[in-house]
Structure formats: structure tokens, C-alpha cells
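Hi R.,

As promised, here are both runs. First protein below:
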Amino acid sequence: MQPIKAQPLDVVIVGAGAAGMMCAIEAGRRGRSVLVVDHARAPGEKIRISGGGRCNFTNTGTTVANFLGENPRFAASALGRFTVADFIDRVDRAGIAWHEKTLGQLFCDDSAKQIVRMLTDAMRDAGVTLRLNTAVTSVERNGGGFALTLSDGTGVRSASLVVASGGKSIPKMGATGWGYDLARQIGLRVTETRPALVPLTFEAGLLGQTTPLAGVAVDAVVSVDKTRFAEAMLFTHRGLSGPAILQISSYWREGEAITIRMAPGVDVLARLKAAKAENGGKQAVHTALGHIVPRRLAEVLTAREAATGKLAEVGDKVLAKLDQAVNAWTVKPVGSEGYRTAEVTLGGVSTDQLDQTTMETKSVPGLFFIGEVVDVTGWLGGYNFQWAWSSGWAAGQSC
């Protein structure tokens, strides 16, 4: 990358993640002098680890319905102007092979590092300067622009400042609340932030019942109120995880219960009654239930409902309880695993203080917020990356 220019810069971008790099590319291509600073040792670290190292870089089904926030429709402008197809085109032109998994999720065939390389190469070609291992220690308004002090003691001036610092999720990778602190410092409202797309945890008593199931996975429908997701669910040593749980975690709040169907589309009671009618009901209850759900889960549920022994020895009321235990399990998590394992941060800089077309703050000309630091949070499955690409592109046209 090029050395820092001595003269004042047009744009300083704080954060070399997905949104920050996309913004830098677009601003650089417009002929702007751009510096990207990040306290991390390498750019795009969340990109690198995402999707099991293959980066779920977007989702073909992306709409505003896949996002949360005080005003999810805020995202419509950016998503509509830099689309899923636009990013796929860039991936194709970079020669990166990809494939589609379930529910419109697109992944690299090889490595997520290819996406990072595509972005860093594009920044270099656009004349962008990248400084890593460098934090911003202070930000001040300076005439019509901004004056920043960096952790090495140097100062930088710019006409525009773009905050792409991300949220609090995965602190071991350096995530902090710096962007939220800066927003508050200049008088912007920050909505409540909390871990999202995160495993849920149980209290000790409930864990005593479910710990033997750690590692068991089922296809499930998990719901809170009227919101539901049909994906895989995984029992863990702390509670529940898997895509369905990560999805519902963005909607769940402490004190609320979630309802889980672990054999969706199956009339468990009818299946058990039919098995009971065969061969004089000689089959063990847990064996019959094990044809519907994983055997280990069947054994735990039949023991819990005192439905041991043969089917012939168990009344229909007990079988009905098993049906409820499988397809109407209502459970109250005690919490989540927190930012340590959360994929994203819910909440952030209030969208009512940003221009939806440019991502510029309405009260401070030249100041932009993009990506995860904004109160726009996507579902699991590539939606948050698409928001990063789209919001970064939008700001890059104007900063």
C-alpha cells in the first residue's frame, strides 16, 4: 500500500472490514485520497473466519424483510442501489468460484481469503492507503473537516470521516464499541446494543436435563411470538445453538420463552399410536420415538415423561405428552453466550440520524456511519455482508 500523504486527505475510513473496504474502493475510484486505518493486524478478519472459512458473502433472497432495527426499511435504498447481483458480478470478475447452499446462501468454493484479497487488491488499484495496527485515539471537528490523532502519535486531517468500526461481537478479534462511543460523543443517538445471532444458554437445572444431548442436532421450527425460523438446531453443553437458534436469538429477550418443534410436519402422536397397534405394541417406546427424532433425544424424552417400557404398557395420555415434548417444547433460556460468540451486534447508531442514500449524518456534514455500527442487523445467511457491501458502496459515492 502507498505511504500516507502529507497533505490533508479527502477521506479517512476507520475500519478495514467489509463495509470499510468497500467504501474505500468506491471513494478511491472517484479520485478521492483515501486512508483506511484499523487497529487489527490484518484487514477483513471477520470475512476470513466467516462461513467456516469460506465466507457466506451474500444471499440471493436479500430484502429489507431480512433485517431488524428501529426502521429496517432504512436499508432499502442502499440495498436497491448496490444489489446482490452487483456483488456477485465483482466476485465473478475476480475469478472466485462460488456455490449456493440452502436458503440462497452463497459461499466461496475455496477460501474466504479470496474475498479479502479481492477487496485489498481493488483498494490498491484505487490508490487507497491502508494502515493496520493503528487505532484512532481522538477525533475533533476541524473547520469543515476532521482532525484525527492516531495511536502512533501522528495526526491526520480529512474532509470526510467514515466510521466502519463494526460492533462488539467477537472481542477476541478486536471488536470494541468505539463507533458507538464516537457517535454519542458527537450527540448522535445509539439504540440499545446486544449480542445477536448467538447461542442461547440454560440455567443449571434445565442443563442437567439437556447436557446428555450435547451434540445432537435436529431440524426444527423455533419461534418467539409470531416470529419463527425453520432450520437446524443443536444441543450444546450450555444450551442450544444451530442456525434456527441463532436466528431466533435476534428476536428473543431475557425472560421470554421460545417454542420448539423438533419433528416439524410429523404428527408424533399418530405415529406412536400406529406403532402401538403393530405387533401387539411390543416395541419399546424410545425405539418407536427414535424413528421420529434422534435416538438419544428419544431416550431422554421418554425417561423424562416416564414413558419407559413397551408401547402396549403406555397409555395414550403419556404418548400425547411425548407428542407435546417433541413438537411443543416451550423453554425459557436464561441468557446467551454474549458477544464472545455472537456473529453480529444488534442495534447501533440510530438510522433516523443518517441519510439513507449516502449514510451521512444529518447533523454533522462529512461524517458517515456504515455497516454493523448502524442500527441495521440482518438474519444469518449472508445478509449482514450484503448490508456491508451496500452501505459501504453508498457512502463511497458521496464521501
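And here is the second one, sequence first, then its C-alpha cells:
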Amino acid sequence: MRSRTGWHYRQIAAGSDLTGDGRPDLVASDSHGARWLHAATGAESAPFAPRGKIGLRGWRSINHLTATGNIAGGPTGDLLARDTAGVLWLYQGRGDGTFTTRVRIGGGWNAYTHIIGIGGGNRDGHPDLYATPAEGRSYLYKGTGNATAPFRSKDTTSVLYLPQRSDDHIA
């Protein structure tokens, strides 16, 4: 039976304040590539306002979306989006739920299965990015606060990522 909740999205990211009210909002893209904002309300009974369209088409090629907080020094939180070609794009928040023109961060990001905004991992005041490949060492990209070059070169972390195998069982 199909759910009637209306939450039929391809990508969802939450955690960045995109509206400038101090609350973490949620952004999603649907199967047609339209972008939607669910602004946080602060109410426990209805944590998000009804969705509002913030972009028509263009995110159909996005296969990974992550909220990062304010990585580029703008008025509010930002988003990172990876397209199917492996290019990572910065969408800098304007403070009204919309974004400035996207900035290309670079290619080759399809090597990672997980790309996660982790806040200030190294405590320098800039949100950082954690990335893991299918197997092996994970990487930390330290934030710079600069929209044209938001991350430093990757640093290897001590975290080893090994995906769970289907024959692994918890007793």
C-alpha cells in the first residue's frame, strides 16, 4: 500500500538553517528534479511547515545531497550536491530558503559512498566534511569559510570504513 504522507523524495538533507530563523530546515528533491523546502517550525507536534517549492528543475542529476551548515560565510546554512558525473556543487543559502548560483567544488566525488557535513570537526569555526569510499580509510575535508574554495585538501582519518556484509549477523 502506498503511503499518503507526501514524502516521496529522491534526496533529503536536513540540518542547515536555510531561512535565518535559527532552526535547522529540510530540503528535498523529487523525481522530476524540483527542489522543496520544509522550514522548521520549532513545534514538536508539527516540526516542519508545509513544503514550498524553491526550484523548478535541475536536481534530477543529483545523486547525493548533504546539509553542511554555513560553510561559505554567507548569511545562513548551505548545501552540497553531487551530480551523477561526480561533481560536487556548493549551494550557498541566502537566508530566505533559496540559494545563490551554485559553485563547482570539484570532480571525482563519486569515489565516495557517504559525504557528510559534520560541523566543526577540527574546532576552527568552519564546518567540515567527512567522506567515505566503498571500503578503506575515511577522509576529513577541513572547511575554509571561503565560497570559491570551501575545503582544504583531504586528510586521512583513523576511521576505517568496512561495509556490512550480508552474511554478518548480530547474535
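A quick note on the second one: The chain has no helices and twelve strands. Let me know what you think.

Best,
J.
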